[in-house]
């Protein structure tokens, strides 16, 4: 796997950890979740800057935000007991389909 994609996918994981910690921080009133949130977002943005060396910002951001939405929705469902209705599940499926289309068929992925 090319290094820019590794950086992008690790950035997605870091952002997902940061957003999960954001929920757990209870509006930054809990110290350790707040620290984890800040450090995770810092790592995510650093890794995004590496991915931007070879990927256009629009494609990179679509993949990053789309995968982040899907992962956070799954974590919200599993960890925080946040229910998803059918339209939410269909929308998440469409996001995943869009990411797959970009990665499998688009030639815009690198410059």
UniProtKB/TrEMBL annotation:
GO MF term set: amino-acid betaine transmembrane transporter activity; antiporter activity; choline transmembrane transporter activity
GO process terms (BP): glycine betaine transport; xenobiotic detoxification by transmembrane export across the plasma membrane
Keywords from the UniProt entry: Cell membrane, Membrane, Transmembrane, Transmembrane helix, Transport
Alphabetized PANTHER family for the sequence: MULTIDRUG TRANSPORTER EMRE (PTHR30561:SF1), SMR FAMILY PROTON-DEPENDENT DRUG EFFLUX TRANSPORTER SUGE (PTHR30561)
Annotated compartments: Cell membrane
Stretches that traverse the bilayer: 31-52, 59-80, 86-105
Coiled coil spans: none
Annotated Gene Ontology cellular component terms: plasma membrane
Name this polypeptide is given: Small multidrug resistance pump
Chief site of localization: membrane
Organism the protein comes from: Yoonia ponticola
Alphabetical list of SUPFAM superfamilies matching this protein: Multidrug resistance efflux transporter EmrE (SSF103481)
Lineage, top ranks: Bacteria, Pseudomonadati, Pseudomonadota, Alphaproteobacteria, Rhodobacterales
